[in-house]
Sequence to fold (379 residues):
Amino acid sequence: MIAPQPFFQPRGTPFSVRMRIKALADLGHQVDLVTYPLGEDVEIPGLRIFRLPRWPGLRRIPIGPSAVKFPLDFLICWASLWRYLAGRYDAVHTHEEAGGIGALLRVVFGKKHIYDMHSSLPEQLENYRFTTSGLLIGFARAFEGWVMRHSDAVIAICPHLVDQARAADPGARVLLIENQPVAGETAAGEAEVAALRARLGIAGPVILYTGTFEKNQGIDLLLDGVTRILAACPDARVVIVGGEPAQVGLALAAAVRLGVARQVVFTGQRPPEEMPAFVGLADILVSPRSSGTNTPLKIYSYLWSGKAIVATDLETHRQVLDETTALLVPPTAEAIADAVVALLRDPARRAAFGEAGRRVAEERYSYRVYLDKVREAYA
Fold:
């Protein structure tokens, strides 16, 4: 398996990589992972991690396309070739742009290749404003099509990417495997949640956001709406879990400017094992994304929680959520705040959303369903 990511770090694709490895291990496979130098080791039976050497000054790798990834991906290509020649493998499983390496190994050596499509590469270049060059975006589109044509199976994480994969190569064998929450079907106990509430010093209702602080996540929309929430529910508190230190500092400064710093709790990144307690603390879970098409990983955890969800009415959410499982609203600070207030005032409606979401999670997003789909991809 080749993952051009900092593995493991608590963000979208590394979470997905970890779940793929866990599923393959549970299916009886052994996995050798070639990955970037940054990240924490994880203990999964049958997993060996081969990292690139770490060079001085490399402390972080941004989410999305970045200049630092070019030399790293050049090195990971050679490291993957060396690992391939040193071992005896039944298949090569690649993530993101490493699909090009897997396609090359398939062309040269005839090795089975499974491509894990977490995003569309040309869409990434545009969404992260990495380039406006039609030439580069066109090259990325052609590269993506070439990877599809040289993959024995393509795993897409959301319906939008299924469509993108088939548009890139109508003959591609594409299987939809939605990401799984790290917590899966677990929930925190009452004592654990009470201890967290006491540690954070929170007595009133909690509105919770979990995830990264990238611009499209809508943290600014959430913060801009806090004053409106507090005007209706003065004892409410907004808890925001995630973000790198510099990003948290900027968000905290924004909260200070808005005069809501005392009512917003920033925890920074927390270990995955703590997330059930944070979700258990919440009365309402929010996903205020302002743009994007891929379904956020947090949505699956939100559904499993049995808590009410407020999310923006965009394709990124509509692929999983509907009017029965979430309160979907326009991507504005006012609409998000008004939806939160409406649910805080209506416990019965909150409970109905939570119960409906939990049922959907049990039917569609259980680990058993996930494992069967991974098995099908390899079959």
Observations:
- The longest strand covers residues 112-117.
- The mean pLDDT is 93.
- The chain has two domains: 2-177, 190-364.
- The domain at 190-364 is CATH 3.40.50.2000 (Rossmann fold).
